[in-house]
Amino acid sequence: MADEGIVTLREALGKLLEAEHADLLREGVALLYRELMEAEVATVAGGERYERSEERVAYRNGYRSRSLNTRVGTVELAIPKLRSGSYFPSFLEPRKRSEQALLAVVAEAYVNGVSTRKVERLVEQLGVDSLSKSTVSRICSSLDERVQLFLQRPLEGDYPYLWLDAKVEKVRVDSLGLVRQKALLVAYGVHETGRREVISVGVGEVESEAEWRGFLRDLVARGLTGTQLVISDAHPGLKKAIAQVLGAQWQRCCVHFVRDMLGHVPRTSQPLVRGALKQIFAAPDHPTARKTLSEVATQLAPSSEKIARLLVDAEDDLLGYMRFPPDHWPKIRSTNPLERVNLELARRSDVIGIYPNDAALLRLATSILIEQNDEWLVQHRYLSLESLTALRDTANTGPCGPADDDRPALRRGKPAVVGNTPRNGT
User: Fold this and answer.
1) β-sheet bridge partners, residue 198
2) Is 282 helix (H, G, I), strand (E, B) or coil?
3) C-alpha torsion sign, points 60, 62, 64, 68
4) What average pLDDT does this structure show over 156-167?
């Protein structure tokens, strides 16, 4: 049988070389793909074509056609089918979930008549010759099922640290025919096992207290417990929602704070201000950090009274992370660990430009984050089990800082004190 295969291949190559107007490179690639598929399907079936063998486990059942875009042009493939079981060529990797979601968004925009020449080029690059509403519906329905399963999964165990973030995206509103900016809300967390997870994703009309409150209540309904610290930027509505729904301590992102402060001084003074603020976060303990903050505020007051005042007012929110194990400080004092994920979301959004509807935005963003979540689950623990044990001991015995820290420790199952304002009657 192997000799017959070689003869067949030689005959095909001979005919290709004799053809007067043949596209040798493209036809040669098609020929190699055909022979590879024949060899693979023979292995899967347990025998060559027309071969009788005790090892045979399946029989052929014709072919199905598929176009494959390659660097030498589009190649038409005849993929063998089996009567029982299935065969998929090894060189045709199934699209990643995020790629399927990208295709779905582009396709949906195309069918809804909001496509541009850029979108049409993207469709061609993704290997789609034609788009019908039934095709788009089929793609979207399979993706939406996975997305909803992920977003509705129960949250088991404690999540001591929670990061909340929002991105503004452009979405077309069908009823008005207008393009509006909507908020993509995302929650990340560290599980009690030390691994990072994408906890939830949502789309809101705007980033407001009401939207965040509903988003967080959904997390609690799914089983979110044990949250001791929430890290985010300084959105007033988000801060209130955290206090009302979670009752956890809030940590203002130090990186965002420094950037905000630099906007209040001339460019020539920014290096000096940045260096002064970084001294605070380099302090080895909470009392030292508070002392450094006071000194920096005093130094900056003559030249920038506003920065000095904002710095003093934000002291508790900026230094809250120091009440937790020192090993965790670099990872919980800002939202910087999420920057790579945010860049990937931004890259995909740049490709789309304007999302055709809310569902398309949720579908693509969640699909990207599901893949990120899968990566985190197989990577090294974000926080060690030993340091998490210290965190649990802290929650039960007292603050991580020295004894003169006048703020009470956060305890599981009890409302937390945010700044100096008591919550829930405590």
Assistant:
1) 188
2) coil
3) positive
4) 94
Per the listing, tokens 């005849």 go with 78
3-state DSSP call for residue 181? strand
* Pairing of the two strands 196-204 and 178-190: antiparallel
Dump pLDDT digits (tens) for 99-145. 566 566 665 554 444 444 555 555 555 555 555 555 556 666 667 88
| Encoded tokens for 396 | 């039960």
Tokens of residue 341, six digits: 């994920």
CB 160 within 8 A of CB 195: no
> Which residues, other chains included, contact 405 with Cβ-Cβ below 8 Å and sequence gap of 6+?
286, 287, 323, 399
- DSSP letters, 82-124, are ESSS----TTSPPPPHHHHHHHHHHHHHHHTT---HHHHHHHH
Q: Residues 153-167: what's their mean pLDDT?
A: 94
* Whether the predicted model's global pTM rises above the 0.85 cut: no
Residue 170 amino acid letter: K
Cβ neighbors of 5 (< 8 A, separation 6 or more) are 35, 38, 39, 48
Q: What is the DSSP letter of 161?
A: E
Instruction: Look up residue 400 and give its DSSP letter.
Output: S
Q: What is the pLDDT of residues 274-312, one digit of tens each?
A: 999 999 999 999 999 999 999 999 999 998 899 999 999
Distance CA 161, CA 159 (A): 6
